[in-house]
User: What shape does this take?
Amino acid sequence: MKRDSRLSGVLHILLHMAQQPGPFTSETLAKAMDTNPVVIRRVMAGLRELGYVRSEKGHGGGWTLACDLSKVTLRDVYVALGSPALLAMGNRTEAPGCLVEQAVNAALDQAFHDAEALLLSRLGEVTLAMLSDDFRKRLGSRKHQGMRAHRA
Amino acid sequence: MKRDSRLSGVLHILLHMAQQPGPFTSETLAKAMDTNPVVIRRVMAGLRELGYVRSEKGHGGGWTLACDLSKVTLRDVYVALGSPALLAMGNRTEAPGCLVEQAVNAALDQAFHDAEALLLSRLGEVTLAMLSDDFRKRLGSRKHQGMRAHRA
DNA sequence: GTTTCATGTAACTTTATATGTTACATATTT
DNA sequence: AAATATGTAACATATAAAGTTACATGAAAC
Assistant: This one.
């Protein structure tokens, strides 16, 4: 399976937006993310629906943060993306008439469920504000070395 | 991403094999699993290398269990498959020069790592023997209703 | 009001990976 | 030698993320 990097990507976008007022066009963000503007609009659509960002058309338009960063967790962002699958593995079939399959599924489902619950819980513990603070801390350290925030 | 069901599948195979002496041909197993013999050989290859099963060619050949089921955990089987990715999500890029990306990756990696560790730990707690016992328990219940073990 | 700029979205292409299939070499038993 | 089974390469298919193209819609600038 191809690893889904939308959560990572959209967090990257949000943190960039948190560093200056905006608005930011999809094209600007796409360049910073080294991708396509349409991809940006796609991943941002869910966040707009939940009110975490706003978008405006026309001159001077673009994307703007519309939430309290200390109130939005990584889990909220994940949900805004449509809660995509967390695990790369799954059962061969659901609704198994085979008792062997039932035994296997029961054991795996238990483990899978626990891991998903922990991951969601961890994501729910981290707010965008915490990430932003971490970024600024890193920025401070690097500034002492006379380097730039953005190199990629 | 497409969910990886090889672990589920190979466990299914092993449990079927545990119910009678064998050996089992790839074709027999493939029919029970509703798939192709080559797929069976592919997922069994790793298990053979670790000595959990044996395979023999020619007349009367096929696959045989070669381990103590109470000594092999689901985690062992997972490793035998080549330790495929557990999580469907990952970071956009590794080796990020961008400090924003570093902050995002650090937070996600922590959550991802914890979830993976828990999943591996859970898989390590369950042996094939436990699964087999569970299967036989289910078989017992169903027998009381006059039904067959295999319906799919 | 027309031009320009920006998002919104559908449709298509590309890429990666699991899964399925075909073909054939190799080994073992009869 | 024939039959049976694994071993494996090569190719085909399915699915989902990611990238691209095209065009409609709406808002600001002139």
